[in-house]
Amino acid sequence: MIRIERLQKSFTDGAARVDVLRGVSLQVEEGELVAVMGASGSGKSTLLHVIGGLDRAYQGTAQVLGHDLAQLSDGDLARFRNESVGFVFQGFNLVAPLNVLQNVLLPGYFSRRDEEGPEEERARRALERVGLAGKEGRLPAQLSGGERQRVALARALFGRPRLLLADEPTGSLDPATAAEVIALLRELGESEALTVLLVTHDDRVAAVADRILHLRDGLLAEEQAQQGTQRQDDLRTADRSRATMAQPAVEANASQGASEEMSEGSSQAASAGRGGAAR
Ligand SMILES: Nc1ncnc2c1ncn2[C@@H]1O[C@H](COP(=O)(O)OP(=O)(O)OP(=O)(O)O)[C@@H](O)[C@H]1O
Ligand SMILES: [Mg+2]
Fold first, then answer.
1. Radius of gyration (Cα) for the chain, nearest Å?
2. pTM to 2 decimals?
3. Which of 34, 55, 179, 236 is 20 to 30 A from 203, alpha carbon to alpha carbon?
């Protein structure tokens, strides 16, 4: 399903180069639910963007759903995103003037061929599944943070993707709702062979994953499935202290915090829920 080998990704920031991913390798099989953890700035979103075909400026190999992403034309990459991948972005990326239902329908607007009726019915069902029945007509501004997050999830699931890439999909949810959302993702993994790669800072969310991967110093390490070793406790403690920013290898004199959130709202905004509208 996902085969990443020696993935390297750097950002240039003026004269400085920040090596965010320094040789990441990763394999995810169909139907797996894999959690990626790591300190703020460690490159989790960057990794998701490469896997989802939103960022092709990398070195190494990224094979997803049988495609070598580097080999796809821009059009084929857009089709890959639209047809196979569901995104839940860290900033949700809901479209402000559209109501909840329209936001969920948006990816279908760009790519789908069904009649309007079944589309809308499916969007309503997706909203029901995330507990938002009755809020279809609200605008994003009239929702709580957790509700917006669930709209983003409904939108990502609406097109029945084979792969869901979710960047902190439960970050704004209370523990009970977070548990429901994760249970839903698990269920979809079993019933529809949905593969899920999710970024989380929450140990409870990570605990229900099949595997937990830790991104640190530009590399991925897999946590052993068996609980209770000192090493895991150390890792968990390290992850909890989010306030300490990760220190990726910086060459030359990086000026602090130059463009942290730069990618938010640029390439991402162009791609609501499912991949870009580049077609
Ligand atoms: N477009 C960009 N230009 C320059 N630097 C960038 C860009 N996008 C990300 N970075 C830098 O790359 C590093 C990794 O960023 P990334 O967004 O992947 O972190 P993250 O692990 O998702 O963090 P968080 O948990 O805070 O979301 C950070 O140091 C960030 O400043
Ligand atoms: Mg991030």
1. 18
2. 0.80
3. 55
